[in-house]
Amino acid sequence: MRRILPIAILALLWGSTLMGQSNLTVSGLGFFQDRSMDARLSFLNNVESDVAIDLDAAILEDSAFLLLEQMKRKGYLEPTIEGRMCVGDTERSVYWQGDYAIQLEVDFVAEAVEFIITPGVLSYYDAVVVDGVHAIEAKQVERFFIPGGVLFSGKKARVFTYENFERRQGRLLRALDDLGYRSAQVVNQQIDIDPVSGAVQVELTIEQGPLYQIGELEIVITRAGGEHEVRKEPAQRVVFTREWEQAKRAALRNEAYRAGYPDATVSSEIVADSEEQAGVILRHLRYRVDYGQAVTLQQIEFDGDTATKRSVLKRQVELKAGEPLDLIAVSEARRQLMGLGIFQEVGLQLEPTSGDARSVVYALSPSQRKELQLRAGWGSYEQARLGFRWEHRSPWGRAHRYEVEVKQSFKSTLGEATYSIPQFLGTELTTYLNAEYNYREELSFDRRAQGMAVGTSMQLSDTGLRLAVEYGFSQENADRLDLVSFESEEDATVASVTFKASLDRRDDFLAPSSGYSLYASLETAGQWLGGSVNFQKLELGGSYHSSLSESILFHAGLQGGTIFTTGAAEDNIPFNERFFSGGENSVRGYVEGGASPRDSGGDEVGSESYLLLNLELEQRIYSQLSTVFFFDSVLNARDGFFDREREVLSSIGFGLRYQTVVGPLRLEYGHNLNPRDSDSDGALHFSIGFPF
Question: Which parts of the sequence belong to the Bacterial surface antigen (D15) domain (predicted)?
């Protein structure tokens, strides 16, 4: 089988190569780039790459021009294209160079052509000097042209073209504009390109101009019948930016929308500029608001997606016929419809487009209702993880959904099904019913749990806070070999109520570089809820991420938990509920669960309380490759925080990370600083995903 797979891949590639051949081919850039350029050329010429075409002078000249332009966009400013053309029994070579010029006669026709590309020297930004900018730090100004954030920046990351130079120059001017320097402009520029190395030296002189602030405002409101209202606001002396200007327009327009004037328009004009002080100008403005005609709501209509019940849709739209048409409320209802999670897009239009009574029409474009996702991953302990996730949205036309997920690894089996109802009873709550089976081989025991849970959650969009409450009922079993050295409840029926809260302010949950996250969970289990044990379990934690320099990131994670009971611990705390530290996302000098307290026989028995600290310094080498230095430490208390038998286990280590679309691919080694007698010196981990 191992021999067949490479042969099959080679056969597929060879077949694709043959299929890509025609009487027009591209070469000179290497196999993959040649085929990419060939496909690009076929697309731009609107021809099939595997079909012979008529090669007249027009198609040949157009192809040469397009290839030259494509190479210039890649940073090769002086490419050469050789066209080797077959005409009967003869071959003719024609050259096109950096500055395109027509080379073929009007009536020329070839039977086949091979375009051989000689890219030339890659042009790249070597140094950029910008004079005249004081509102932005010089290092930040340079970053508009030369990317930072990494230890090494290769030439391909700093490609120079005249097009990207204009774009980056424009972004710098817009940044100054956003800071209030509305008249900033380039007064001089010099570009020197080394023809041998491709190094580009750029010198720019920018006239930053004065800082504009908001002066006096005059607001003129015109209503139907010629009624005028004039409001005046004193000078605010805040920075005059496009963002402020757009926000002011939106506020005036929304004021009219809420009053039932959906055709309201806002325009502005400069009344005068006055110098407040040296380098600062007050800009006095006049805003004109034309309310237009007052409009009442005639009715609500839904167009498209007949499979979804109209009663479900109407619950999302709190609008009444006969009242003023509030366009803000109409837009909010559109967002409510999108919040059901079953539409790809919800269009909005008013019918008719004029008149004093109009209907609101929501055009519904359904999203994909059934989706199968294959899952794969890797962890040092579980090794390969494979599975799938099946989701069916709005199966009964009521915007409900159900999900089924199955995962299998060398150490565990997981099966889970969830049925959820968004915006339950017209509220922001999502209610769900969940069933789960989980089997996992730990270091010194086998864990098994199966159960059901019902809960509800709510996302507070203004704050990013997510709240949830859940009732769960499960059967938990632990298969241990040594039941004498440490007594615990091996088989328990757990009935509990859990309260959860989380706040995520990270810039990217897959690979964060700034921001923070917090979470808290409190579980109360009791016989009064239908179980066989009584305990409380509290977990708190969070992470913080920040940049120490352009290429160095700092990550910190702190989490802790405790489980306690008013009765005897060995009768009320299930073994499965204990905390087991260690592994690729915990203390990395140990395997999964290996940094846990042990009994007299050397088996891991977990802790009733723990406090875990993770610290990392990440050095970005290239845009996707980083090195990581980390320190992990856990404080374990086998029988609770008030027990005297506490232990601290720590490790330091080094790792490599490669960023992928599913998170960082991690190779890390943790060395134990204070191993116990039976502990190893360290552990090597290979995994996918950010650790905390």
Answer: 397-692
CATH for 296-366, among 3.30.450.180, 3.10.20.310, 1.10.287.130, 1.20.120.160?
A: 3.10.20.310
Which residue shows structure tokens 């030369």? 146
DSSP designation for 593? T
Residues 667-678 have pLDDT tens digits of 999 999 999 998
Q: State pLDDT tens for residues 487-531.
A: 888 999 999 999 999 999 999 988 999 999 999 999 999 999 999
DSSP category for residue 158: G
Q: Do domains 124-207 and 479-487+494-688 have the same CATH topology?
A: no
CA distance 437 to 420: 18
Query: Measuring CA to CA, how many Å separate 273 from each of 212, 213, 241, 270, 279?
Result: 9, 10, 15, 8, 12
- Strand runs labelled E in 234-292: 265-277, 280-290
Number of DSSP helices (H) and strands (E) in the chain, helices first: 9, 32
Q: How many CB atoms lie within 10 A of CB 592?
A: 23
483 three-state secondary structure: coil
Side chain identity at 141, as an amino acid letter?
V
Specify whether domain 479-487+494-688 bears CATH 3.90.550.10.
no
- pTM, two decimals, is 0.78
- Peptide bond preceding 352 in cis form (omega within 30 of 0): yes
3-state secondary structure of 174: helix
